[in-house]
Design a protein that fits this description.
This protein is mostly helical and 122 residues long. It has 6 helices and 2 strands. α2 links the parallel β1 and β2. α4 packs across α6.
Length: 122
């Protein structure tokens, strides 16, 4: 599994180094990530069943909301994303730019968590 979003400070290029410094004895059962961002290390560890339990967090509530929606509302999230994609692809370049700025404004004021998650990805 790979991160589905780019994030400042992402660890994708450092994975080999980070994994090489993990304890080998597996005495630690829980993984706690205070700043998940794009989640490169988290996704690697999860995919390889490295720990028994995983706890992720971030100060960015919109990002955490997105992770929750990915876990709990994936079908609805994909439906919204497909609708946004369909609308976007029907537009010419200048209309796409207008749509982008309109959606960016909505992202900054939206209170609908699921729609906010879709806008985050879009």
């Amino acid at each position: 599994m790979k991160p589905f979003i780019k994030w400042a400070g992402g660890k994708t290029q450092l994975l080999e180094i980070l994994i090489g410094n993990l304890p080998e004895d597996k005495l630690i059962k829980n993984y706690m990530e205070p700043f998940i961002g794009g989640g490169a290390l988290f996704f690697y560890l999860l995919e390889n069943d490295y720990y028994e339990k995983y706890y992720i967090n971030d100060i960015n509530f919109k990002l955490i909301n997105l992770y929750i929606d990915l876990r709990e509302n994936i079908e609805e999230l994909l439906a919204i994303l497909n609708e946004l994609k369909s609308r976007f692809l029907k537009l010419d370049l200048s209309e796409r730019e207008k749509m982008y700025y309109s959606l960016r404004k909505e992202f900054n004021i939206s209170k609908d968590n699921l729609y906010l998650s879709a806008l985050f990805i879009f």
